[in-house]
Amino acid sequence: MQNLHIVENPIVKRDLTYLRNKETKEYQFRLALKRIAYALAIEISKTFELKEIEVETPLEKTVGYKLKKQIVLVPVLRAGLSFVNSFIEMVPSAKVGHIGLARDEETLQPVEYYYKTPKELEISKTIVLDPMLATGGSASAAINFLKAKGASDLVFAGLIAAPEGVEKLWKDHPDVPVYIAALDRELNERGYILPGLGDAGDRTYGTL
């Protein structure tokens, strides 16, 4: 699939196993999720543009670098919040917006209930954070909101995805790269990813 990047390494695969295991406790789940988010942040950061600056070491002047664009993180509430701290630790200058989208369990369509983002999205690199890319409806809606506010340089970062969700994003937003840790088999009749790991938000925050 075009624009799909699966971040694979032994630590990520080990931590995905922790996340999938129904016996994993909340604190273990959060720690594993945090480590995978670091891996995603590092992979996505390879696409960041740099500009040269002059820096003075204790011995002499030399060439250094800074990020060319402001980085804006936009977690989709609430599960997307679990990615924010890892990304901010990697990019301390990042700004953070929020989009609240609830899934209608009857139609499986996203319903907006909150939206707040930093200004100047049109000159920023915006990373949408949402661990589960299931039907793709929420992610696509979030990206639509951001584009309407001027965002044009967008990336989606998730944990696991179903083929249906990836296909939805590719169809609606072929310009948006998708970074995930695993591509799972399919969706069930309720719109949950299989084999999946359950509801990432519930398992992160202990609201099962």
Secondary-structure topology with pairs:
Layout: E1 4-6, H1 10-20, H2 26-45, E2 50-56, E3 61-67, E4 70-77, H3 81-90, E5 95-96, E6 98-103, E7 110-116, E8 124-129, E9 132-133, H4 137-148, E10 153-157, E11 160-161, H5 163-172, E12 178-180, E13 182-183, E14 186-187, E15 193-194, H6 200-205
Parallel strand pairs: 1-12, 4-5, 4-6, 4-8, 8-10, 9-11, 10-12, 11-13
Antiparallel strand pairs: 2-3, 6-7, 14-15
Helix pairs in contact: 1-2, 2-3
In short:
The protein has one domain (4-205): Rossmann fold (3-Layer(aba) Sandwich).
- CATH class, anyone? Alpha Beta
Q: Could you describe the largest sheet, including whether it forms a barrel?
A: 8 strands, mixed
Distance between the termini: 33 Å
Number of domains: 1
Tell me which CATH architecture applies here. Answer: 3-Layer(aba) Sandwich
Overall 3D shape: globular
Secondary-structure element series: EHHEEEHEEEEEHEEHEEEEH
Question: Helicity range of the residues?
Answer: 25-40%
Mean pLDDT equals 91
The tally of helices reads: 6
Strand content: 25-35%
Could you tell me the CATH topology label.
Rossmann fold
Radius of gyration, whole Å: 17 Å
Low-confidence stretches: none
- Helix/sheet category: alpha/beta
Strand tally is 15
